């Protein structure tokens, strides 16, 4: 055990071959020859270093070991420590955000994570995170966190009301990557149907509607088609009754566009309006 801990400290300090060493550490932990706490305590000098690059290596090792352990491995008390640690690292330095997001994405799926821990994550993220300032992969990680929350833990955050809704819509405002957009367009209807929009209904619609009609040209390398984006966008724009007053005028306005593709998109959107909005209202 001492050999393993000494090795991980040396490796993390140098920043080389962290993943393979963390594989060995996680095996020791999963087989109960080493505790996660002992592993973290061995990193104390690294995690408290005045050199942010050394601290970052420590966080990378922390998350690498964490991700190699089963989702049901930690009891709530251990998870609470991990949760607090990741929140503290999130606001330590902006360069830590990508790796901490990976840790958050994994831990929100854990069996014993509590409502309090989920809330702590978002209370940390919301005032300190500007999604569109991050790289594409890191934005995608954040959207994957949202996807899991929308599908599995939305009730935990419902009490946040417009604050959480604003976090969601501001995170996607200005997103241009098609892979991120298709993910957002697929997960938003589930969220919007099950979360109160309140006074942010129009602002929420406007953030989504800025993508209509879809401006995307496929290439041979494209894994996503324009039709997929357009169809899923239309589903977002017509997924809740609160959008009716904004969506129908938008479709009629874009119907007058000179581009044929914009006209076709507008007709398809009107079809979705007829299928999803209450004609009496």
TrEMBL record:
Nucleus found in the keyword field = yes
Give the GO cellular component terms, alphabetically: cytosolic [4Fe-4S] assembly targeting complex; nucleus; spindle
Matching entries from InterPro entries are given as:
ARM-type_fold (IPR016024), MMS19 (IPR039920), MMS19_N (IPR029240)
Q: Where in the cell is it found?
A: Cytoplasm, Cytoskeleton, Spindle; Nucleus
Please tell me where this protein is predominantly located: cytoplasm
Family statement: Belongs to the MET18/MMS19 family.
Look up the record and give one Gene Ontology term from the biological process aspect.
iron-sulfur cluster assembly
Q: Which Pfam families match?
A: MMS19_N
Subunit structure, as described in the record: Component of the CIA complex.
Is DNA repair a UniProt keyword of this protein? yes
Q: What this chain does, per the record?
A: Key component of the cytosolic iron-sulfur protein assembly (CIA) complex, a multiprotein complex that mediates the incorporation of iron-sulfur cluster into apoproteins specifically involved in DNA metabolism and genomic integrity. In the CIA complex, MMS19 acts as an adapter between early-acting CIA components and a subset of cellular target iron-sulfur proteins.
What is this protein called in UniProt?
Answer: MMS19 nucleotide excision repair protein
Q: Which organism is it from?
A: Macrosiphum euphorbiae (potato aphid)
Domain MMS19 N-terminal: residue ranges: 40-279
Q: Which UniProt keywords apply?
A: Cytoplasm, Cytoskeleton, DNA damage, DNA repair, Nucleus
């Amino acid at each position: 055990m001492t050999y393993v801990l000494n090795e991980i400290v040396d490796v993390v300090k140098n920043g080389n071959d962290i993943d393979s060493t963390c594989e060995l550490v996680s095996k020791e932990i999963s087989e109960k020859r080493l505790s996660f706490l002992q592993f973290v305590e061995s990193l104390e000098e690294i995690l408290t270093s005045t050199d942010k690059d050394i601290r970052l290596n420590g966080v990378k090792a922390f998350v690498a070991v964490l991700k190699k352990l089963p989702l049901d491995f930690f009891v709530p008390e251990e998870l609470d420590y991990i949760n607090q640690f990741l929140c503290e690292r999130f606001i330590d330095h902006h360069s830590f955000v990508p790796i901490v997001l990976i840790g958050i994405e994994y831990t929100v799926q854990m069996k014993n994570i509590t409502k309090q821990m989920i809330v702590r994550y978002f209370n940390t993220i919301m005032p300190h995170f500007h999604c569109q300032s991050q790289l594409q992969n890191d934005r995608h990680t954040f959207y994957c966190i949202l996807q899991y929350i929308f599908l599995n833990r939305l009730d935990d955050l419902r009490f946040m009301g417009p604050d959480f809704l604003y976090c969601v819509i501001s995170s996607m405002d200005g997103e241009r990557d098609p892979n991120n957009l298709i993910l957002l367009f697929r997960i938003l209807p589930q969220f919007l149907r099950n979360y109160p929009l309140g006074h942010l209904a129009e602002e929420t619609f406007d953030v989504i509607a800025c993508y209509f009609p879809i401006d995307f040209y496929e290439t041979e390398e494209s894994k996503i088609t324009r039709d997929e984006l357009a169809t899923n966008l239309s589903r977002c724009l017509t997924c809740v009754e609160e959008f009716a007053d904004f969506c129908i005028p938008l479709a009629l306005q874009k119907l007058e566009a000179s581009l044929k593709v914009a006209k076709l998109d507008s007709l398809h959107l009107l079809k979705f309006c007829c299928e999803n909005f209450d004609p009496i209202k």
